[in-house]
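Recall the central idea of this unit: under ordinary conditions, the amino acid sequence of a chain determines the structure it adopts. In this exercise we apply that idea directly, starting from the sequence alone.
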Amino acid sequence: MKSQTQSLPTAADVMKRTLVTFTPEMSITEAIRQLIKYRISGAPVVDAQGRLVGICSELDCLRVLTAGEFYRDDHREEYVVGDFMTTCFATVDPKRDLYSIAQHFLTHAVRRLPVVDGDQLVGQISRRDVLVAMDAFSRKRIVVRQYPDYREPAADVGARRAP
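Accordingly, the structure predicted from this sequence is:
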């Protein structure tokens, strides 16, 4: 019995490359609008050179919304993403395999991981991306069994039956 061997997919194989990103200077209300518009739970925050400087999630935005000062008319547009984004976060190398990424999701309460090459953001991988890739990978893992061609009689069948 032979099985097809396939290498485990990497972050580069399954990551999203087209991302909604924020800047630290963006108003928090605009970030909220973007999260709602694109139906995402968070986005990477990048500086002018494309370097990853933070993550802004729904949870970060909720912290702002629960602040009493937010509702005062004179302060509403002063809040910016850079003041509330998460700056302590894990990243993934594009060559990291799917198994270790899944392990990270199991041991840390995050929904997405930025994929960085050096200091440049190149993509993002989410829990769902991992699940979709795992499903596709498992479908490709086919056990190939080689059976004899039964259209032709085997030459040694009669010889074994003879006394």
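The first strand starts at residue 2 and ends at 3.
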